[in-house]
Design goal:
Layout lengths: L12 H5 L3 H6 L7 H29 L4 E14 L4 E2 L9 E12 L5 E10 L6 H11 L10 E6 L5 E3 L2 H27 L11 H7 L2 H37 L1
Antiparallel strand pairs: 1-2, 1-3, 1-5, 3-4, 5-6
Length: about 250
């Protein structure tokens, strides 16, 4: 006759103490991080501002909205990277940070005339503003501008002037679609307290599982829209760059 099996003794406190701490904590969900949520709010606000700036500037630069016309320059003021500001005199060794030109705007149809129009050009922007600065300064290198020179611009309802340029459109579209991607990323940060630094809040994959399905779906769609748009905008920008090189060789 076989003897009955002896009962298995419960685990002692010593063996429980030897249990790896990661096994018990791995099953517990990581709580949301307040830092991650505030970070997500900051990213969302910044992304929305950049989206508005990028797409609105692209629309104005294309001439689809606003009033197209010509700015007849009467005076310009140049600010250089070193911080010096002069309305006359050439600085061939210094990079232009900003060129502000004032003059008279006249719409293509002649129905809108603004004799105190002001055009602000950013010297750090490739193409668009940068090319316009070079063209204006070529008119009279000794003074940096030639009174009476005309620039094709587009005027908004607020009176702001934008240079009509395909390069400006491409640059602004790249900026806008990149901001769409960051806007999608902010959903997990706000909803689950995700933070990019490891150890603060849940990881992105954990946070995606914690937020509602509509939030995770919205994030995915924003990533898809922003990614496809950014790729197309970059390709458009590259084609314009090659077209510019081709025109120089012709």
């Amino acid at each position: 006759m076989t003897s009955p099996a002896s009962p298995v003794p419960p685990p002692s406190s010593a063996s429980a103490a030897q249990q790896p701490p990661g096994e018990e904590s791995a099953t517990k969900p990581v709580p949301p991080s307040p830092i991650g949520r505030w970070f997500g709010v900051a990213v969302a606000v910044a992304a929305l501002a950049v989206i508005w700036y990028g797409f609105s500037t692209a629309a104005m630069s294309s001439g689809l909205v606003g009033t197209r016309g010509e700015l007849t320059i009467s005076t310009c003021d140049t600010t250089y990277e070193s911080g010096s500001s002069r309305s006359s005199g050439s600085h061939p060794s210094k990079r232009v940070r900003e060129l502000v030109c004032e003059g008279t705007f006249r719409s293509s149809g002649g129905d809108v005339v603004d004799r105190s129009a002001r055009l602000v050009l950013d010297g750090n922007q490739g193409g668009g503003d940068g090319d316009t600065i070079s063209e204006i300064r070529k008119q009279d290198y000794d003074r940096g501008y030639k009174p009476g020179y005309e620039v094709s611009v587009n005027r908004s309802s607020d009176g702001d002037l934008y240079v009509t340029s395909w390069l400006s459109i491409a640059n602004c579209l790249c900026l806008g679609f990149l901001a769409v991607i960051f806007l999608g990323y902010s959903f997990t940060c706000i909803g689950a307290g995700h933070f990019p630094k490891q150890g603060i809040g849940p990881t992105h994959s954990e946070g995606t599982a914690m937020v509602p399905k509509w939030a995770s779906d919205t994030e995915s769609w924003l990533w898809v829209i922003g990614g496809i748009g950014l790729v197309l905008a970059i390709v458009f920008r590259i084609l314009l760059m090659f077209a510019g090189f081709a025109s120089l060789l012709m």
